[in-house]
Amino acid sequence: MEQAQFKLNESVQQMLQYNDDIWQKIQEFYFGDNPVSDALAQLNAEDLSKFYEALAKNPTHMMHLQMKWWQGQMDIYKNFMLRSMGEDVPSVIDDLPGDRRFSSELWKQNPNFDLLRQSYLLFTTTIRDMIDIVEGISDRVRQRLHFFTRQMINAMSPGNFLWSNPEVLKITQEEGGANLLRGAQLFHDDLLKSGQYLKIRMMKGHAFEVGKDLAYTDGKVIFQNDVFELIQYTPKTDTVYQTPLLIVPPFINKYYILDLKEKNSFVNWLVAQGHAVFLMSWRNPSKEQAQIDFGNLITDGVMEAVKAIESITGEKEVNAIGYCMGGTLLAATQAYYVGKRLKNRIKSATYLATLLDFDKPGELGVFINDPIITAIEALEKQIGYCDGRQLAVTFSLLRENSLYWNYYIENYLKGQEPGEFDILYWNSDGTNVTPPIHSFILRNLYLNNELSQGKVKINGVGLHLPKVETPNFFISTREDHIALWDGTFKGAQALGGDRTLVLGESGHVAGIVNPPAKNKYGYYTNTETFENDKQWLAKAEYHAGSWWVYWQEWVTQYAGKKVSAYAVGNGQYPILADAPGEYVKVNLV
């Protein structure tokens, strides 16, 4: 016991060595000039004021909830007393559905920790119900109240603190505090690599190498400008489909989510099916690229890629795939072709988890209002770009218990460095966004929903989606919390061409990266007309297996005949480097 105590004291002293660095960073977080934090605080204060005002007009609701909470808490205390006297009685409150924070039996074996767990869960549901029942506030205010109170309550979870987490206490006692020392080292390193907010690592530092373990599919960079690099992948078959395939990944992430390890690489699978695959790898911008706007992504991005593909293959049209914001860009590019009275060079368009109508932004909507956007624009004007680290934290906090606080506990309290998971490595390997592009996304797309209304102009050219008559394929995912599937299906109706709608299982990434070899998730199809998403799903047919195979059958009708595989590059577009190229390897820190 004395030896364990000595180790604990030694660990605490070593932890204090990091104090200066940590305190300096915390001062930057909380006392630095951050207009976004100020705007959020102001907005929260206004929302709470509206909430309390509405609550005061309905005191009966408040009294009912208080009595319900009081009775629940008394039942928990009674349960605690019985268990403390050795009686075997079940808990009054079970864990919330899908909540794994208290899955360890240590929380329930000890009556003291079970009391803490149950009291916390009762408080959580009481606050949630109180926000739900209050009348006289708008849906937007209610959504923000739910989101930010949830963030606060989940941050206060007893599992997040050393002395109230039985799992952490057990490990600390067994290791003499060595876990805390390892955790302090991880916290120190993460803090110094973070931006305005703490970015917790989800992966072991050097678990993968881009270009070796991930983004590994054989290919060559055959074009580069200030916006993107174009990769042409080496064919795996002697013949390929005549119509080339262009992939437009999201410009707010790195492309290799579609080219992970061999078994779950969409790019590798496409090449194996006989497609002549080209892919855009967006530049990770710094303040030197601060002038690049959404119009540049169209004219200097997608349109330039199509020109290069025509030069190499001789084909004037491509089948195109756009993922998330890459899909939004793909639709906008086609509308630009039409608006300029040019031939639309997209023969068929596939949209992966793509929003075209932003009326339903999901939980991202809590950040979509003029004061917050104005503050974000002011901050990005100061530093010259949108910091990709903050984007990563924002998306993690949409699922804070599974993508943020669990890593906080595992890393910093238990002292366990994360494992090796390719998707999480990609998730942590973010990109910056230029201020004009980020402002366009937030203000023109999300806030004002201008693309679906035909109000967007690029270089004076109006973008009108109904005039885009390209056949299109929409694959959305049922549990997507970033691009809600009813919102993506609504956006599909804005296009003028024939449409095929498919709903995959799982979420924004796992539902898309769903290779046939694993057959982990199935999908739904329905070709009938429908009025709303519930009606569509009620009549949809379920299919086991990957949507990739279904898509391959669909795109074949636009792929043309088989021809000899195209040479990689040519005199006008010579080989510049091996894939994955230079841009994807640029890190944020």
CATH homologous superfamily caption of the largest domain? Alpha/Beta hydrolase fold, catalytic domain
Biggest sheet character: 11 strands, mixed
Number of strands: 15
Q: Unreliable runs, pLDDT <50, ≥5 residues?
A: 1-6
Which topology of the largest domain does CATH recognise? Rossmann fold
Question: What number of structural domains do the residues give?
Answer: 2
Q: What radius of gyration results from the CA coordinates?
A: 26 Å
Spatially, the strands of the biggest sheet line up as 13-12-11-10-7-6-4-5-2-1-15
Description:
The protein has 589 residues and is α/β, with parallel strands linked by helices. It has 2 domains: 2-193, no CATH class; 219-359 and 388-431 and 449-585, Rossmann fold (3-Layer(aba) Sandwich), CATH 3.40.50.1820. It has helices at residues 2-16, 19-31, 35-56, 59-84, 106-109, 111-133, 139-155, 166-175, 178-193, 266-272, 294-313, 325-339, 370-383, 388-396, 400-413, 422-428, 435-447, 485-492, 533-538, 547-559; strands at residues 219-224, 228-233, 239-241, 245-248, 277-282, 318-323, 346-352, 457-458, 461-462, 472-477, 499-504, 523-525, 541-543, 562-564, 577-578. The strands form 3 sheets. The chain has an 11-stranded mixed β-sheet, with helices on both faces. Strands 3-14 form a two-stranded antiparallel ribbon. It has a two-stranded antiparallel sheet with strand order 8-9. Helix 3 (35-56) packs antiparallel against helix 13 and helix 6 (111-133) runs antiparallel to helix 7 (139-155). The chain is globular, with a radius of gyration of 26 Å.
